[in-house]
Structure to design on (117 residues):
């Protein structure tokens, strides 16, 4: 591996650099087996992001409001853990939430319009 140093870290003997193929949102998308999904919207007037957690019957079961992506996903995951729920059983589902919340946060700062993917 040519000059692969991040800071002061050394490389593990079994270090491997993995190249990632492009993600195809149609072919590679998989619903969370729990059936849960989220709806995200921006309340520009009050500078808030709102997240609705929906079940597989398309019923909103819980909603969260906050100003920052990190506040929201931390609260949602802690709520899920505290109440022994399983809304996000897949890591890509949790990563999607973080990505979408960050996009919504940029919207509140006036940098872009928010459209949930």
């Amino acid at each position: 591996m040519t000059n692969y140093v991040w800071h002061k870290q050394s490389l593990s003997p079994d270090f491997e650099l993995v190249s990632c193929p492009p993600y195809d949102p149609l072919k590679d998308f998989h619903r969370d087996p729990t059936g849960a999904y989220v709806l995200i919207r921006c309340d520009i007037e009050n500078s808030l992001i709102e997240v609705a957690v929906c079940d597989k019957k398309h019923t909103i079961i819980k909603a969260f409001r906050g100003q920052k992506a990190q506040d929201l996903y931390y609260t949602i995951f802690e709520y899920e853990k505290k109440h022994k729920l399983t809304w996000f059983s897949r890591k890509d589902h949790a990563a999607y939430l973080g990505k979408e919340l960050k996009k919504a946060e940029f919207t509140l700062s006036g940098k872009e319009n928010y459209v949930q993917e």
About this structure: The chain has a mean pLDDT of 91. The radius of gyration is 18 Å. The longest strand covers residues 37-43.
